[in-house]
Amino acid sequence: MNTASRLIETLARASGTLAAWLALALVLVTLDGVFFRFVLNRPLQWTDELAVWSMIWMVWVGAIGVMRRWDHVHIPMFLRLLPLPARMFFIPFAKVLTLICLGVILWYGVIVFQGSFHSHSPSIGVSNKWIKLAIPVGAGMMALCAIHLIIEDIARILRKDYAYFENYGAMEFGVADTEAVAESASSHTI
User: Fold this and answer.
1) Residue 185 is assigned to a structural domain of this protein
2) Which of 26, 31, 52, 113 places its Cα 20 to 30 Å from the Cα of 130?
3) pTM
4) How many domains, the chain?
5) 32 backbone dihedrals φ, ψ, rounded to 5°
6) 180: in domain
7) Quick one: pLDDT at residue 26?
8) In the structure, what pLDDT confidence band is assigned to residue 32 with cuts at 50, 70 and 90?
9) Range of 127's domain?
10) Partners of 127 in the β-ladder
């Protein structure tokens, strides 16, 4: 594994850990808000804001790990019908299109973050500028992962690693289940 791969893996692990901590904070803050509101009848105003902020950051940071593994929801059925040379084109091409979309999101995320139209939260007093920062941070890190994935695909093409493209999407939901059912049926025949 080269240095770039190690850095991307470290980024993905760190983002996953941060997303897990943010999810825990979201749960604890929400439970705290429910407890104070419905049990003690003394609602805390800041719990709603902090829960929403945790969720926003959790989504954008957690998506980094999903991007690194290219685990976004997709249906490879039509891709699997294509001949191998077409697959070798379309798989990296989909990642390039994703990178372009991330670039647009990153661009506008920076514009929004640098804008002058930010308000302050009513209960905590923090500028919502810091919540909006999740957009360019998440999109920028996902763009780095997408670039790395595109480079890996191009390297596979140059190495003539056709097995990767041949098997792409084969272990998706349904295929493995069908194979397991077929194995189970063959082992239980009388």
Assistant:
1) no
2) 31
3) 0.82
4) 1
5) -60, -45
6) no
7) 95
8) very high
9) 3-171
10) 120
